[in-house]
Amino acid sequence: MRRKMQYLLLLLALLCTLNVAAAAVGGAGLEVDENHTKAVNWSVQFEYEQLNMTMKQMQKVSFVITVVETPTSLENNAQFHVMNDNVDVAHIDQMEMSLTSRLDGVMKMRGTFNVEAKLLGYTHIYLELRRVGFETVQSQATMKVIVTRTMTLADIAFNIAVACFVIIIYVNFGAVLDLEDLKRIALRPVGPAIGLFCQFVIMPVLSFLIGYLLFHDMIELRLGLFFLGVSPAGGSSNIFAVLLNGNLNLSITMTAISNLAAFGMMPLWIFTLGALIFRDGNFAIPYRSIASVSCTLCVPIAIGVMLQRYAPDVTGKMLKLLKPISLLLILTITIFGCVLNSYMLKLFTPKILIGSCILPWLGYVIGWLIATILRQPPKDAITIAIETGIQNIGIAIFMLNFTLPQPQADMTSAVPMANSMVTPLPLLLIYFLKLCFCRNSEKSAKEEINEIKETELVAMMASGREKEYAKSAQRTNLV
Fold it and tell me: I need a surface site. Which of 202, 208, 335, 338 has the fewest CB within 10 A?
């Protein structure tokens, strides 16, 4: 019995010892935690709440740090660092700090740093306090930096050059228009009706679905793609109709109808499907822009029609220059547009490029399939496909600039800008393939015709009809 009591007392003593040790360890951990959670009461005030800059601009910014001093406020290893949450937009350099005052337990430090604007967009700049053995603390105050772009002399020159090219091209279009063919299209507008359905039913729904799948959480990019989808046909569709041997009369008619229909169809789509993307609907439709596009199409074409009637010799010369000038315009816009807007390339994410490719390229395929199923002539089917896939990028960018603040408007414009670069690619590829593979067949066909004509001319000479031979040879350029 006594032994049992001894064992019991020994066990109780052991338990007490363990409890004391555990308490000691717990007390030491608590003390460490307390040491590591000693907060520093500090704040920062930047010179600007919001800093507006243009690309490649450098700006010096000052700030003041206020610290409420305690015995362990700032150790020797404490450091302040200026941080930036988007290094692609702005770069921070040359930070300097100095103590300015220490009074009534409050210490103030003043510092400066340089901000270099690199790319359009926005970022937030803040301070971090770093101490060895402590968690990094971020300042509550931040400075928002907004970077926009400026219109340079090169941009203005490029816009003027493109405008001159477009005027010349449309005067050429008017000079080669077949007015009888236009009357036939107006009396039986099957092609324009198919184009209108593809342009203002297929493309808006397609742009909405693609935007929802690719940019579900990026409202601005969804708006950019949707505004592109509801825009009318672009003027470059007429140029590609010429290059790919489509029906130019049908193309011009469809472009004009599309731009006129945009007055009613764009508001309809923007305030139905568009309301799901931009729910408050706080933006206006650019009626002036749509009207100016329509006038831009009509006035030069009317000048060309007048030349066709009153100066047929000039019209003949212009007809020979139509394809070269059209190709030159497309290459000029594509190459110099890419060079001048090269900063946009940094904004082109894989999703933006995929969406910009899918929308026009699917438009080509769907437009051609519908036209073929409805038994349209091959030239008309090609024209309808081109009109469906090519959107008026200028109107889309105008709407984005009118709707969204900067730099969001320019950032969202990356979608139509990417679209302008990828839209012509399949059409240019088809055109150059036709040049390479169809030239030999065209040459052989011409050679066969010439051989037949040469045989006929030799027969004329053998029968004594030398005068007829001379005239025919002159016409066929064999003499």
Answer: 335
The whole-angstrom separation of Cα 230 and Cα 205 is: 9
pLDDT digits (tens, 9 = 90+) for 190-218: 888 898 899 899 999 999 999 888 888 77
Beta strands 143-148; 121-130: pairing state: antiparallel
Phi, psi of 376, deg, nearest 5 = -85, 150
Q: What is the pLDDT of residue 119?
A: 83
**Structure-token match 């029968």, residue found:** 463
CA atoms within 13 A on the CB side of 420: 27
Q: Distance (Å, rounded) from C-alpha 114 to C-alpha 60? A: 4
Q: Distances from the Cα of 357 to the Cαs of 225, 240, 295, 360, 382, in angstroms?
A: 11, 18, 29, 6, 19
Nearest by Cα to 221 from 15, 415, 54, 418? 415
For residues 204 and 229, the answer to whether their CB atoms sit within 8 Å is yes
Residue type, 95: M
Question: What burial letters (b/e) apply to 369-405, b meaning 16+ CB within 10 Å?
Answer: ebbbeeebeebbbbbbbbbbbbbbbbbbbbbbbebbe
Distance in angstroms (rounded) separating the CA atoms of residues 186 and 429: 32
The pTM of this model reads 0.62
Token output for 284: 């206006």
Whether 423 has a pLDDT exceeding 70, the answer reads yes
- Give the C-alpha separation, 429 to 400, whole Å: 30
Residues 6 or more apart in contact with residue 168 via CB below 8 angstroms: 325
- Record the tokens describing residue 300, joined without a space: 């030069």
Local confidence band at 372 (pLDDT 50, 70, 90 cut-offs): very high
Nearest Cα neighbor of 96 from 71, 63, 66, 73 is 63
Label the pairing between strands 58-68 and 79-84.
Answer: unpaired
